[in-house]
Design a protein that fits this description.
This protein is of the alpha/beta class. It folds into 3 domains: 179 residues, NAD(P)-binding Rossmann-like Domain (Rossmann fold, 3-Layer(aba) Sandwich); 97 residues, N-(1-d-carboxylethyl)-l-norvaline Dehydrogenase, domain 2 (Orthogonal Bundle), CATH 1.10.1040; 101 residues, 2-Layer Sandwich (Transcription Regulator spoIIAA), CATH 3.30.750. The chain is built from 19 helices and 15 strands. Strand 4, helix 4 and strand 5 form a beta-alpha-beta unit. The mean pLDDT is 96.
Length: 500
């Protein structure tokens, strides 16, 4: 694969935040850049904003003055499309409107030569549909940068149904030469990240709507137990509820209302109320006064047990045995059993796909953790029939292991386990349908949305069989198709095969 030569001109159309960011990336990589916007004066203002950013980088020592001056000399605003005639690559970053993009690229074909690579930065529209208006759609690709483009490493290189392989290869190599982490994918709703990431938001919102726990508690469990950098409520407040909800709705509609992508009514109400998150001062949380931020529900301290019985293999939670022994708790092992921790009359199971009460009157489920040793919080979901002393005993066990404890309502799948299982399922489904390679999917989720590990790697750590059985039980508890495991996940689980 050969990247675009740095002596060639790159044109960026759309001088908003994203267009400015892409222009900055191409400039720093050494290209001449022409920045165009149809709105009078926008290209000049955009170029000035890029120049100001480069100046700040130089002031902070992240770019030397000579590099800054050379980059600024290569940047020029364009007053008309005709000034882009010498471009070897044109990247569009205008409004997310299909007819507007189609008109723009149809006009561009009369300006640039036949060898010019054309690319759209769309995040929600079909790349194939945008290319449909072109005489030569083979040279058209999606180059989906993430905002802010100069900082975030991921670029999704999207091949439309008509994209030539050489065009996709050049786009991929060019993004890599610009210091980005490109991944390849086919033209599918949401591409990789916005398709696979939907459960991270959707399951949290659904748990909240079901009254399982409040937003601050769900966020804390996903951060402190699941290992995610931010919880879904605080993250969508940062993104903007209108932006996140629009992406969710677009993917759902593009998949013909598939229940796996169903939007949240609670989030829709936020958008309708104008509670858009940080930018409006209020979303799931209030902003401006940190004292107003709610704290996660945390159980008070309770005495540690002197001993426990562990029956069978705890599977993904086996590390808890070592942690209990290190905490001075005597552990009696029983080889037979179904993977349980027994405290007097209370039995603790790792989160299952069903309700805790379905496994017995004195059953408490505990949530999945990315790393039980590193986790600082655990969620417990007791059956309604567990008495308060039984819950205190379970709280005391995990407090002895150095964990804060959040007690939530009895719910199938709990918080982390349910979210992770759905992420694994959608990633496996994307592999099966040829959206992208397993490695590219995991790279996209780590580099694009900062997941602690890729969902397919996570699935392999748990085993495809564990995830498939978990989702099958969840599907039985909550029928309707949302939780039915994908075909590839079931096949890999049955054969004890790997996902990654």
């Amino acid at each position: 694969m050969i990247a675009l030569d740095r002596t060639r001109t790159v044109a960026v159309i759309g001088a908003g935040t994203m267009g400015q960011g892409i222009a900055q990336v191409a400039l720093v990589a050494g290209h001449r850049v022409r920045l165009y916007d149809a709105a009078p004066g926008s290209a000049e203002r955009g170029a000035a904003a890029v120049a100001a950013r480069l100046a700040r980088l130089a002031e902070k020592g992240r770019m030397d003055a000579a590099e800054r001056d050379a980059a600024l000399a290569r940047l020029a605003p364009a007053g008309a499309l005709g000034e882009l005639a010498d471009a070897a690559l044109v990247i569009e970053a205008i409004i997310e409107d299909l007819p507007a993009k189609q008109r723009l690229f149809a006009e561009l074909e009369d300006v640039v030569d036949d060898a010019c690579l054309l690319a759209t930065n769309t995040s929600s529209l079909s790349v194939t549909a945008v290319a449909g208006a072109l005489r030569r759609p083979g040279r058209f690709v999606g180059l989906h940068f993430f905002n802010p483009a100069p900082l975030l490493p991921l670029v999704e290189v999207v091949s439309a149904a008509t994209t030539d392989e050489d065009a996709a290869d050049t786009a991929y190599a060019t993004a890599a030469a610009w210091g980005k982490s490109p991944v390849r994918c086919t033209d599918t709703p949401g591409f990789i990240v916005n398709r696979v990431a939907r459960p991270f938001y959707a399951e949290a919102f659904r748990l909240h709507e079901e009254g399982v726990a409040d937003p601050a508690t769900i966020d804390a469990v996903l951060r402190e137990c699941g290992g995610f950098a931010m919880g879904p409520f605080e993250l969508t407040d940062l993104i903007g509820q209108d932006v996140n909800e629009a992406v969710t709705r677009s993917v759902w509609e593009s998949f013909f209302h598939d229940p796996k992508f169903t939007p949240s009514l609670a989030q829709r109400r936020l958008v309708e109320s104008g509670l858009l998150g940080r930018k409006s001062g209020r979303g799931w949380f209030r902003y401006g006064d940190e004292q107003d931020r709610p704290l996660p529900a945390t159980a008070p301290p309770a005495p540690a047990p002197e001993w426990v019985t562990v029956s069978g293999d705890l599977g993904p939670a086996e590390e808890l045995v070592a942690l209990m022994e290190e905490a001075g708790i005597a552990v009696e092992r029983e080889e037979d059993g179904v993977g349980a921790i027994v405290l007097d009359d209370v039995t603790l199971f790792l989160a299952q796909g069903g309700y805790a009460f379905e496994y017995g009157d004195n059953v408490i489920h505990y949530d999945l953790a990315l790393d039980y040793r590193a986790a600082t919080r655990i969620a417990l979901a007791p059956a309604d029939t567990v008495d308060p002393e039984g819950v205190r005993a379970a709280v005391g066990l995990f407090r002895a292991l150095g964990k804060q404890v959040s007690v939530i309502e009895d719910v199938p799948g709990m918080i982390v386990a349910r979210t992770v299982a759905m992420l694994v399922d959608l990633a496996a489904d994307a592999v099966a349908k040829g959206v992208a390679s397993p490695a590219d999917i995991d790279t996209a989720m780590r580099r694009g949305v900062n997941y602690p590990i890729g969902p397919l790697e996570w699935g392999d750590r748990l085993s495809a069989d564990w995830v498939s059985v978990f989702l099958s039980e969840l599907h039985d508890a909550c029928p309707g198709g949302r939780y039915a495991p994908s075909a590839l996940l079931r096949r890999r689980g049955a054969s004890e095969g790997k996902l990654l």
